[in-house]
């Protein structure tokens, strides 16, 4: 073979290899669409994902289930019916696993989706100004490309469980019209999950002397039976108001010890009811008879449960959390963080339920983990470390950021042990108020870009937990700088980059 033929052959082989690699690479993280009915979810903390799973089950094998980001332009053009369950996050933003889809659809010709029928169930919370914003924008985007809506946008409002149930019934009817049999009972668990009771059995300040707000470790022991959860899951705690926040209201209403049947059907005193009602900026009514005053109180909405990333794993009798006090400008403590850290005593009971957070569950044990977080985000990261420590698996790298190198070292003893026994292969704790070397986790990531890429070549997954603003955004943009926008989006679609940020 003459020299030029050798070069031509080598070039052809290289081209063939690149095409194969590109194809394999491109399809990783893509959806497996095997039917013309598709149920897609965009979910940050698992609720929309679970509802989408129940929706797909309604079609007993005839529907494909995937994250919205996994759908390509070709996929969406080939589908007959698309059901979407989409939550909204941040300030009216899409969840991570739905963020890329709108631009995929926007690139299509105006009538490209004229053969597509769709229905959207939006999940949101009307306490946020941009209620269900992502579901609304998705509805508009699909409609603008010629797709036909099967019904108006259905909006589930987490602030109003009674209405949520009605919307779920409308969704059920919609699926029935498409021959789906939707198990309302199973989905209803997501609206009214069974509450369990636990007692606070340990409470410890994690950061004495910190320039930041106090952060506590709490251990909760389950009173009856067991609790089922895994690393990545979230506990929803039903807090109670501190007496100081409702005593003046009761005094003005001239009620207190009187009892009445509350909205859940039990007999409770006005004081007990006031402890569980959302008194945020309520204006007192101009009522003056006790019965009306009691009715007004009873009809106030219940306090919303507050979410905490579970910090433990591998124990079904107890669970652990980390709670940072929320302190308002006037010095008052937030309802739940005050309830959990100051207004209860050891042994006191509380009500909770577990929120399965599929989006933040552990990847396969053979995948190394790059765990990144700050502040109370140590909770979700510790759960994954505990899980690896109990069940084994590839090693982890923890990048954790706090303020003060002396005071802000939660779980320092445990982390040192995990470093010694190999659960942790690398530990980077950085401090924004370090007098000699102030740093954020995203700065340390940038400084260690080569190492990060090396871990990713070892098939590592990235898990981020803690503040969405500042840390979460900073980490995301450094990842995009180091790896490129497309790689980061692909890693999210593949579940190799997961976030529990709030
Ligand atoms: C997925 C997730 C995981 C989390 N994990 C953790 C964790 O591990 N550790 C941790 O410490 N925190 C965590 N949080 C935050 C936690 O859920 C609470 O938001 C935090 O503890 C403050 O709650 P609070 O009841 O003390 O404050 P609140 O009393 O809720 O006060 C907070 C702010 O909300 C305002 N507000 C109060 N009530 C209302 C209302 N009805 N409508 C509108 N605004 C209102 C208040 O004025 C105040 O500005 C997590 C949040 C999420 C979403
Ligand atoms: C940090 C955070 C930000 C949120 N932002 C919004 C919002 O802007 N608009 C809205 O309607 N709901 C918002 N929500 C409420 C969620 O959409 C709602 O809780 C939903 O049920 C979550 O579903 P998921 O678990 O599938 O992500 C927000 C919730 C959290 C925790």
TrEMBL record:
Organism superkingdom: Bacteria
Record-linked PROSITE patterns: FAD_FR (PS51384), FLAVODOXIN_LIKE (PS50902)
Residue ranges of domain FAD-binding FR-type in the record: 193-363
Ranges that cross the membrane: 7-25
UniProt keyword Heme, yes or no: no
Keyword check for Membrane: yes
Keyword vocabulary terms for this entry: Electron transport, Flavoprotein, FMN, Membrane, Transmembrane, Transmembrane helix, Transport
EC number: 1.6.2.4
Domain spans labelled Flavodoxin-like: 37-176
A matching Pfam family: NAD_binding_1
Alphabetized PANTHER family for the sequence: NADPH--CYTOCHROME P450 REDUCTASE, NITRIC OXIDE SYNTHASE-RELATED
UniProt protein name: NADPH--hemoprotein reductase
